Amino acid sequence: MTDLPHRTGRIGRRSLGRLGAALGAAALATPTLLVRRAQANALDKAKAAGVLNVATELHFAPFDFSEGGKQVGFNSEAFAEIGKELGVKVTFQDLPWEAVLPGLEAGRYDMVAGPATITRARMERYRFTAPVADATVAFLKRANDASITKPEDVSGKVIGSGKATAQLAQTQAWVAKLPKPPEVREYVSFSEAYADLAAGRIVAVGNSLSNIAYTAKQRPNVFSVVMPTFGAKTYFGFIGRKDPDSAPLLDAVDAALDKMRADGRLAALQTKWLGQSFDLPARVTEAAV
Fold first, then answer.
1. Which of 255, 239, 247 is nearest to 87 (CA)?
2. Distance between CA atoms of residues 99 and 109, nearest Å
3. d(CA 189, CA 165)
4. N or C: less crowded end of the chain, CB within 10 Å?
């Protein structure tokens, strides 16, 4: 029994020695681990997971909408190409538009497809990708409404646009200058606005020319585009967070879009879904609205 304390002491010292060595190794490894974690930006995380999470609204044809229960449109095909360039799979979340940008700020997904009109106010809060389409605003009317032949003819009537959209803001700003400004109703989705237009509850819907031209083409007996467009020349872009963590991801997306523009894929998608290709600036550094 007298040997027990002595032997226990030797075992304790060996254990403490091993523990000290382990702690020392951990201390040396910890800074490296922290650096690696610090370097894991949004692009690294997407590539590590193999997935790019994108939010959108499936009521914004021809960019994003449902057909036969399946997502179709410009966005899904454009992001499929972007995903190939980045080496990731793209998954979409369908949300009401007014919830999309707050969700981006909260970090619930990597990007927003939209696309959204590039405006000065939005550029202060978010980073836009290279432009992907023209977003200049025009009116959609009923095809049999002979009382509206130009944008100014909506004066004194009731029109609509999408809630929390740049198209609504541009429509409101433009009609406010008319001799008798019309009542402007706000709709949760443009699909609802088009339904009210078809039913005669409003006389026109203010939206981007890209959107309404597609809608009129799909239902020529119901809708017609009022020309010319009105308001400032604007462009659509995809959106990401304006922070250092997101910068590498958005740089990579821009590089993918640049490649798609150079090899003709972007123009082909524009023609397929928007009816024409566009002469777009490589980047929008200063918004018109």
1. 255
2. 12
3. 10
4. N
**DSSP letter string, 10-47:** HHHHHHHHHHHHHHHHHHHHHHHHHHHHHT--HHHHHH
Q: How many residues does the chain have?
A: 289
3-state helix, strand, coil in the chain (%, to 5): 45, 25, 30
Is the distance from CB of 160 to CB of 193 less than 8 angstroms?
A: yes
* Counts for the chain of helices (H) and strands (E), in that order: 10, 14
List phi, psi (to 5°) of 138. -145, 175
User: Do 95 and 57 touch, CB atoms closer than 8 A?
Assistant: yes
Phi first, then psi, for residue 204 (nearest 5°) are -160, 160
Direct distance between the N- and C-terminal alpha carbons of the chain, in angstroms, rounded to an integer: 90
Tokens standing for residue 39:
């370097």
Q: Are strands 137-142 and 204-208 parallel, antiparallel or unpaired?
A: antiparallel
DSSP string, 68-89: TTEEESHHHHHHHHHHHHHT-E
pTM: 0.79
Could you report the per-residue pLDDT of 152-210, keeping only the tens digit for each? 999 999 999 999 999 999 999 999 999 999 999 999 999 999 999 999 999 999 999 99
Pairing of strands 111-117, 235-241: antiparallel
Reading the block at residue 247, the tokens are: 């910068």
